[in-house]
Structures are given as structure tokens and as C-alpha cells.
Amino acid sequence: MDMATQRIEPPASSPRDPRRERRRRIIRNIIIAIVAIPALIWLVLYITKGRFLKGPFETIVGRMTNREVKVGGDFQLYFAPLRIKFYAERFTIANPAWATQPYLFRGERIDTRIAPLSLIFGKRRLYWLDLVNGAVDLEWNRGHTANTWTFSDKKGGKPLEFPRIDEVTVRGTTVRYRDPRMRLLADLKIDDIRSTDARIGKAVGVEGTGRLRETPFRLTAQLLSPDATANRGENKLVARAWAANNVIDVSGTLPSIADIENVPLATRARGRDASELLGIIGVVMPQTRRYAVKAQMVKDGDVYRFTRMTGTVGRSDVSGLLTVTNGDRVHLESTIATRNLDIIDAASIIGYNPDIVETKGVVAAAAATGAGPQKLIPDSDLPVEKLRAFDADLKWTIRTLKSKRVPISNIDMTLALKDGRLALSPLTFAMARGNVATDIVFDTRKRPSAVSYDVRLAPTPMGQLLAGWGVTEAGTSGTIKGRIELAGRGDSFADSLATSAGRIAFVMPKGSLTTRNVQLAELDIGTFVQKMFAGQLKEPVSINCGLIGFTVRGGIAAADPILIDTRKNVIIGRGGFSFRTEAIDLAVRADAKKFSVFSGQSPVGLNGHFAAPGMSVISPELVGRAGAALGLAIVATPVAGVLAFVDVGDAKSAACGPVLQGETAAGQRTRGGEKRDDVGRGTTAKDEKGEQKPGKEQKKKFLGIF
Q: What is the percent of the chain where pLDDT is above 70?
């Protein structure tokens, strides 16, 4: 057969594989089922609106949140068409058992569309929300370890987060917030909100009342850029609160409506008394005059940081930073700087009302604290229980104290309060080119409070120190140094000083002093008159050494000793003063070393009280001498009358060693080494015969500093 004409037969067809066909049918049926079942479910839900899911919804969501969930009216849950529609009337979510209110959320009606995938991935998103008469209760437990809006006990108290909402309509919404640790309760009402395409179109207002600790407050706030609020955009917040005669303004930009963590907020506060402001959170500070301050506040958990703080308190400026930690115990940490502190504003530091000091004087301010008439030492008790409720650390520097008489500058104060122990240590300042260091401790853990005072004055020029009291700086080269160390018991300055014991001593090394008062104190009338007519009253008085010392027992300070050795005289003082009554009873006498005519040889009395000291130049002794002079002048000649005022000049010079060492009266000696018998012995007590009782001698140096 010819190959060209050969017929080619087609191959026989192979039979179909039954197993492959079966697999195909199964895959097809599965695909149909995958498409049909959701479609059927969607269809059933769409037709029924998912109302039959009301019971399962309450059960499943209740188990997931560990709360009771109830829908008291109509209920709908279905896809419409690709968004989850949730509709519920009289919808409630219960609070945990420890909460003070039964429901976390109550709503007369809630209608919303939810993005399905947002329930699984990322932040939850609501396409739109319509809420009518919603009420939200937000609470922390006492341990601050759980809150009502965190449904998992294992996760503790998470920050409050809002979902992203594109369009919203809210009417009649209220929010209640309670924090037992902060002792804060707030009831807020939110203005009605309507938005389209995430644009609300007007400011959203919030107003309400509440109580912080024991202080009621009123609050108003606005979101000035609310178009992005529902969409979790930036929100410009402006809020104002009124509490305890204070007005507090807060403004800033929030990343979301409820997110203030680590967000810088501009804060301003003003009022009649800054102590009322801090008193809101249970912090005690001295009373102040009107204040106005501003700062930047950042909240970080329980810590509130106020930085860039500037403002005024009274007529004084303040700047610095403040950190408030609101833990189990409130803790304040502050660093403050002041360029100029008015002395009237400073009056509050020791317990005076500065407004009374300015208008009525120090005596009236002391009386307002409970001190008796004509007293200066404030007698208001420390708020002991409140001081035990918080801790504080303060660092305060002051460049200048504005005062007419007291030349004080460069004040550096450190205050520490821990568990009721208040320590002002150290408090240092410059005074008339000298330095003063002070340590004061009020330990309220002991009842009554144990109080200690330690004041140390470095060598200071007397001319500048006493210039406000008539001492002439030119020609005055004398200096003074000293120490006051006292310890007492009491909850006020007055009580602690009235029970105090210790030592007061001021030492004057060799120098000169130019003042009329020295001539009067020496009461060398002849020299005084001579200088007055010669125009030489400002000629300096030469001081070899001097000591003004007091021993304090039971609040009574007795001269121990007062001994000043000048070129011409030895000045001696007796008596003392009382911290109990604030009475002064001192007598200062000048005995001449050389012959002097018209020398009084009689004490100059210092009397009165701290608030109104007096000087009695014409003492009974001097009156007696004047009477004798008059008698001699009558029975003899006028020249004989002068003899009554003649000082033969037998005073013994003081050994300056014990004086400069601050020794007590028992340790004083004459220049020849003899024990002095003309100085006080550390007591003003009298025996039955009216004679001065000898005090306990102290042979050691005063606190080892002289």
C-alpha cells in the first residue's frame, strides 16, 4: 500500500477516572457551600434582623467580659450589607462587684455600624454611632489595680481608649468618674454631638461638678477642633475649674478625646491664697497673698510634672518646677527660684498672715495666731495630722529679701518632710556681708512635737547689720558672730520656745562702733555732753571684746554673761527675758576704768516686751544719786553736788580669752586672771531674801564653736 494513500485511524478515547470526578464534585460542593452558607446566614440575619440572637449575644458577651449584659428592648445584629449593624434598646453592661454603681454602661438606645475586620485587627472602628441617653460609670478600685472598663482581671487597669468613629450623633450623655486613691469624684454632662464625614462643625462642651478629697469643684471644658474627635484626630482642649477660691485653666492638644497621658498641657492657676490650692490635694503650706502662676503640665501615670513654672505670689516672683506623685502617699518635689522676695510675703513662713502684717502690723498678725496681747511669736499649731499624710522635698533659692532694715540676700532653703518629720535644714543666707546657717526640726512623730533650733551667725560687720537702727557704718569696724541652740516641745513656735532649753551667745571681737546709743549705754554723761558740744558724737567707741550670752531653761533666758570691754569702760548686764511672756527685764551698767566726772554709774534698764521694748535711762539708782547731789549742793556748794556723779574709775578690764570663747559667767576672768564676781550666773531666779540664786556653772566651751 502506498504510504501517501495510507489511512490513519484516530486513537481510541480513554475511559474517565471515577475518582477524579468525585474529587471535582466534592470541591465544587464545598465551594458552593462556602458561598451559600454565609449567604444563607446573611439572608436569614438580614430578614430576621438577627433578633433571635439576643439571648446568645447576652450570654456570649457576658462570658467574654465577665459581666452581666442585658438588652431590655429591641435587639438587632446583622450584616448590612458588609458592615455589622448593632442595635439595642435599654442596653446595659454591669460593673464588677467592687464598684459603687451597678452599671458600667446604660443606654436608652444605641445604633451603630461596625467595621468587621476591626474587631480582629487593629483599632476598633465604627462607621457611625447614634447614642441616646447614654450613661457611663468609670471607676478605679481602692488598690488602683483594676478599673471598670478593663474586662480582664489578668490585665489589671488599662488606660481608657475610644474607638475610631467616622460619624456620630450623641444626645443626653453623662459620664461619672471615681478614683478612690485620688479621692476624686466627678459627674460630667456632655453636650449633644452631631457629625457628618467626621466633621462635627462646632465646639463640644462638657460641664459638671465633683469633689477632690474634701473640696467641691465645678468644671467646664470645650473641644475647639472637634471635627476630628470622632476620628481619633487631634483635639484642642480648653478647660476651666473652680475650687476653693482658685481658678485653674488647662489647654492643649490631645491625640484623642480621653488620652491625656504624656501630653503637654498649658496650665494656669490664680487665687487669693496658694495654700488653698495645694490644700485641695491635702498638702499643707504657709498662707500666702494673692497668686498667679502658669506652668506646663505632663501626666505620666500617678506623676504630674509642672515645668517652666513662672508667676507671682503677693509682690514676689516665683519660677521653677513642681512634681506631684499621687501614690499611696502624696509626695511633692519642687525646685523654686525667686529674684525678689518681699518681706511681707515672707511673713507667712513663720506663721503670720501676710495681709494682716501689711495692713495692721506684726503684733496684730501674731494675735491672730492665738498669741496674747502685745506678743510677737506666732502661736498657731502645726496641722500635725495633715503633715503626716504627705511627704515633700523643697529647694528654694532667693536672691534678695526686700526689707527696709534687714540686709538679707542669697537665701538658700532646703525643706524635707518625711513621715511627719519636718526639717528646714539647711537654711542659709547672707546678712550684712556675713552668713547665717539655720537648722530647724519639727518632729511631729513625738507628742508634743520635739523642736530644735540651731542658728549660726558667721562674723558679720555690725555697721551694716545695725544700720537700720541708727548705727553709722562709717567708722564702725566691729564684727559680731554667734549661735543660738535651743530645744523644746510644742506644736507651735510659741510653745516650743516657751519650753526650750539651751544657749544663746553673740561674741564681738576687737573693733570700733560709731553710734550715740553706745554713749547712752555707757551713760558717761560728761563724755556725752562734751562730745555733743564739740560735734564729735560720731567718734568711734573702741571695743576690746564683748559677749552677750544667755542660758535658757524652761523658756527663761538669763544673762550668762553680758560683758563688753571697751577702751574706757566695762559694760555689764544682768537680768534676762522670757519666751513664755515675751517680757524683757535687763539692766546694763558701764563701770569706768578711769576717773570720770558726770558718770551715772547706774544701770540702763531694758524693759517692756518683744513687741514694744523700752529703755529706762533714769533708773532708781540714778535718781538716788541725783537726790544726794542736790542735798550736797544745798548744804555745801554747787560744786560739791558734782561729787555725787564722780566715778573713780576702778573697773577691772576683762580677759578677752573667755569672752571670745563664749564662756558662761563662771568662766569669765579679769585681765589679771581673777574670777569675775560682777557678772550674772545664768539665772534670773530670786531666793526668799530677794538675792539672785547662783546657776549651774558650765565649764566647757559653748558647743565647741568659740
A: 74
Question: Which of these, 611, 162, 144, 582, lies nearest to 362 by C-alpha position?
Answer: 611
Query: Do β-strands 69-71 and 330-342 pair in parallel, antiparallel, or remain unpaired?
Result: unpaired
Q: What is the pLDDT of residues 301-330, one digit of tens each?
A: 889 999 999 999 999 999 999 999 987 789
Record the cell numbers describing residue 242, joined without a space: 473652680
Kindly report the three-state secondary structure assignment for every residue of 205-260: EEEEEEEECCEEEEEEEEECCHHHCCCCCCEEEEEEEEECCEEEEEEEEECECCEC
Q: What DSSP letter does each residue of 15-64 carry, written as one string? A: PP-HHHHHHHHHHHHHHHHHHHHHHHHHHHHHHHTTGGGHHHHHHHHHHH
Q: For residues 350 and 515, what is the distance between their CA atoms, to the nearest angstrom? A: 32
- C-alpha separations of 479 from 92, 460, 560 in Å: 81, 5, 20
Burial class (CB in 10 A: 0-12, 13-18, 19+), 227: middle
In SS3 terms, 68-84 reads as CEEECCCEEEEECCCCE
What's the CA gap between 619 and 612, in Å, rounded?
Answer: 19
Separation of alpha carbons 56 and 61, rounded Å: 8
Distance CA 285, CA 426 (A): 18
Q: State how beta strands 330-342 and 390-402 pair.
A: parallel
DSSP sequence for 509-565 = -SEEEB-HHHHHHHTBHHHHHHHHHHT-TTSPEEEEEEEEEEEEETTEEEEEEEEEE
Q: Letter for the amino acid at 242?
A: W
φ, ψ for residue 86 (rounded to 5)? -125, 125
Q: How many CB atoms lie within 10 A of CB 609?
A: 19
**Cα of 123 vs its chain's centroid, Å:** 43
CA 69, 72, 75 angle in degrees (round to 5)? 85
DSSP label at residue 475: T
Q: What does the CA dihedral 504, 609, 696, 587 come to, rounded to 10 degrees?
A: 100
Distance in angstroms between the alpha carbons of the first and the last residue of the chain: 148
DSSP H or E segment with residue 658:
helix 656-660
Which amino acid type is present at position 638? P
Give the C-alpha separation, 687 to 260, whole Å: 74
Query: Which one-letter DSSP state was computed for residue 621?
Result: H
pLDDT per residue as tens digits for the range 649-682: 556 788 888 888 888 988 888 888 888 887 865 5
- Look up residue 391 and give its three cell numbers: 511627704
SS3 5: helix
Count helices and strands in the chain by DSSP H and E runs: 14, 32
C-alpha cell at 439: 537648722
Q: Find the length of the chain.
A: 706
Per the model's pLDDT, the better-predicted residue between 389 and 555 turns out to be 555
Sign, CA torsion 699/702/705/706: negative
Distances (CA, A) of 151 to 94, 104, 257: 11, 11, 21
Owner of C-alpha cell 554723761? 525
pLDDT tens per residue, range 129-153: 899 999 999 999 988 888 998 887 6
CA nearest neighbour of 232 among 198, 260, 266: 198
Q: What is the pTM of this model?
A: 0.74
E-state strands within 314-464: 316-326, 330-342, 390-402, 408-418, 421-431, 434-443, 450-461
d(CA 124, CA 140) in angstroms, rounded, equals 24
Dist. CA 384–CA 448, nearest whole Å: 10
Whether the link from the prior residue into 81 is cis, omega within 30° of 0, is yes
**DSSP one-letter string for 366-397:** HHHTT--TT--S--PPP-HHHHTSEEEEEEEE
